[in-house]
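Why does this matter for the project? Reviewers at the last site visit asked to see concrete outputs rather than summary tables. In response, this paragraph embeds two records directly. Each consists of the residue sequence and, immediately after it, the corresponding structure tokens. Nothing has been edited or filtered.
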Amino acid sequence: MSKWRFVISLFVLCVGCSVTFPHNLSLIKHKNLPKPLDANLCADHNAATSVTRIVIKNADSYRVEKFVFVFRNTKNRKNNKVEGEYWHLNGNRSHRRLVVLIPGTGDRVSTSGSPELLIKSGFNVLRFFAGIDIFDKSALIEKTILTEDDLRAFVRTGKNVIRLRACDLIFVINYFNSLHYDSVGISGVSLGGIHVHIIGALIPQAQSELIMISGGNIAGILYTSSEKKIIEIRNLVRDKFLGSEQRMWQILGEELWDIDPLRFAQSLNPSKMRIIANYWDNIIRYKFAKEMWHANGKPDFEVILFPPGHYGSALLLWIPMIRYELRCAIWPICFPIPWSIARVPEINKQFFKEKLPQ
């Protein structure tokens, strides 16, 4: 018996698992949702000052280009440009579907492996690389105190970084959408999940969205996150702000609302969406993924039980996850039924094959 317990324990450690709570289509059915085309969001956004495209692979059925779009010239070079790869099908299939892959604050790890599977399944792919640096800690260190106006200015600067990156990504997507794709699907991880909401609401062709280990209520995320950089900035603000703790978070909520995923949620179709959260996530806590789920009309909601944690989820790029779906005979009599074994690249492929129309 002890031998089998060891084998089972080893299997659990080597294989992830999740449970999906499927979207109830009888609750909400949307065919064509209105897109809140916020003319002001990107009103001050300028076109790229330079565009570089280099073909790095030519295969029989597709080609891959590396691209760099430079938008501005500030001291933070990471926020100035957008880099990535464009995987484009050759022949008659090339003008149908485009999948956009958006990383978090890191570089390209969270999107690795997906373009190869998607291109083989008949999708064109736009894969973005580096993320962004949102808040400048040095701007806080230089100040001895923070008034309400100081705090609002600091938060607006960070909000503007997120906003401009969303506008950058929209510009690049539209640039490559000169072929007029029939439909666009968007997949985002962590901070990329926040951008999925903004872009999905503002691009008319966007028809399906996959959000992984992300959440709504940005102020709440910043209040509870265990991310080292966020903790450092949070403590600096607390030490220097002249007002109360309650007032501090009230200001953050007010200032960040313009780019909060919850603001754009009702413009996305819940029947064409999946939210994947990690129950043990301490960076973007599970409750904020659930808040996003409620705001989006309760789409498919997949909860990762193993591996634990925000960055632990990255292991699913390489190890398979047994995915269970909750099936109910009569509520609340429900049972988890295994329906898929997949890594993140397969999750992307399975989702868009099902949800992105041809």
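We now turn to the second protein, recorded in exactly the same manner.
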Amino acid sequence: MKNKNEKVNSFSLSILVITLSGAPFWGILTSYLLYNSKEATPISMIIGYFLGLIISKVFLSFNDTYKDLISSKKIEKIYGKFSIVINLIEAILAIFAYIFLCYRLSSFLSSQYLIETPEIYFYILILGLTYYIANQGIETLTRVTIISIYVALAIFVFDYINLFKEINFNNFLPIITVNFKSIIKSSIIYALFSSVLPMFSMSISKTNLTNPENFNKMYYKMYSISSIILLIAITTTIGVYGINLSSLFDYPLYTVLKKIEIFSFIDSIENISVMLWILYSINASSAILLSIFNNVKEVLNLDKKKTKYFKALTMILILVITLLFYKKNSYIETIEYIKYPIYVTFILFILTLISLIISKLKHKKRN
């Protein structure tokens, strides 16, 4: 963050919710949801949306405690000396969430466009780009995201108007072919991913908002918009390919774009349309990285020079972790990897919930 006193409005900050909520779903998570809940995936997403609203309420309530402080400083107020442990855990989890988004984007670019080019080159490029954006501060990040969202929404409307004619409504029947447990499992996973990562949009204190009273309302609106976009995208994919074929794709929301043609002779539109999901990933990753930078800087009380060293070391650590723990992408690994980001989002939610409860109890005790 370039300036601790940077000011943004509630609309600009909350629009990060769309990218953070949607970024994980264009690859691994959509494959898993389709694999697990079949034709009932849209139903599980609707249930997950309402669960996500409850989870969002927890994060927003936590954000409303100690409004003049950012997350790491709130935790210091709540846990005292033990806060260093909580902040360290949250920083590690945030780093893994960042790696998850960046690595999947690099895997996609390598496997779909330049298969002879090692994906590590794409990964380093993505790290550099997101580092640059995050290093510019929250004001620059929100401006970039606003422009990206307008471009992405224009692409989305164009794509799915053209795809509508390709839908075979028989592909939605029978609506429920799995047990209730599978639907609920998908709903919970959808809720966790769609509503936990948006917590990283709250990387500044509410006092840095020009109209903080509107933030919660805008947050819910952006989360709802993101859920509608995802519901339309995934439902259309099922309608076009059917559940058996859709669940086999590593990137179903990209593959369905290959069906788009203009005037029956202009094809390969997917290479432009995929910018929707690439922009999502870049902006969401930048938001997470900015949150890591801001919170650790505040906890360690780093000056400008030390902050530069810390950021450089963080990026090196991220690269090393990726080289040590991640493998080349395949469909089986995609299903296998789902458990790791689930753990990340679940622990982040539980930590925030516990912190909120303790904060409320302390406030009640003081009064």
